[in-house]
Write a structure and sequence with these properties.
Length: about 180
């Protein structure tokens, strides 16, 4: 994905891109695809093995594993929010078992587009929950960034175009005398 690299504009201006079909371009595509396959395999292994490991533990089997970290000083960064989430027992059980089911099913959900969307929304929610409730934002942001490889190029292009369009619209809708920063 050379168009998403940090130096894509610089290379495009200098004309440094290899002509399509040339040997270096083909080799770069092969290495890029192999890296994506390796990263995909690693992500799938991490989620599936983590879920299977959790499933063997007593707190996860009995459905209270989510409760414990949210009630400790180390991970319960916002006690009021942790108490709100863990007050209702069935919700704790659903979150505990749901996280195992989501993680073990995530590799299989990547196989078709509808289930991929469900899986990506689920895993995004999972990591946002970890980041907010347990105070682990850097871990969560890292995993969200890694999981973003499963989003198609067309979706990124639509998101970029929509953001650009809304930005231009917001600049044109700015009241007189207010300068929109570019």
């Amino acid at each position: 994905m050379h168009r998403w690299s940090l130096d894509a504009r610089r290379r495009a201006k200098r004309g440094e891109w290899f002509p399509p079909g040339s040997q270096p371009a083909l080799l770069g595509t092969v290495f890029h695809n192999l890296a994506l396959v390796a990263l995909t395999a690693q992500v799938c292994f991490v989620y599936a093995s983590g879920a299977l490991y959790k499933a063997g533990g007593t707190p996860w089997e009995e459905g209270y594993a989510v409760y414990n970290p949210l009630q400790t000083a180390r991970f319960g960064t916002w006690p009021v929010l942790g108490d709100l989430v863990t007050t209702w027992g069935p919700m704790v059980v659903a979150a505990t078992w749901g996280s195992i089911i989501l993680q073990v099913a995530f590799p299989l959900m990547l196989l078709t587009r509808p289930t991929r969307l469900i899986g990506l929304v689920g895993i995004l929610s999972f990591h946002i929950g970890i980041g907010v409730l347990m105070g682990l934002p850097w871990f969560s942001l890292t995993m969200i960034a890694i999981d973003s490889i499963f989003i198609r190029d067309r979706t990124w292009a639509r998101l970029s175009a929509g953001t650009k369009r809304r930005w231009e619209q917001a600049k044109s809708d700015a009241p007189p005398g207010v300068r929109a920063e570019a």
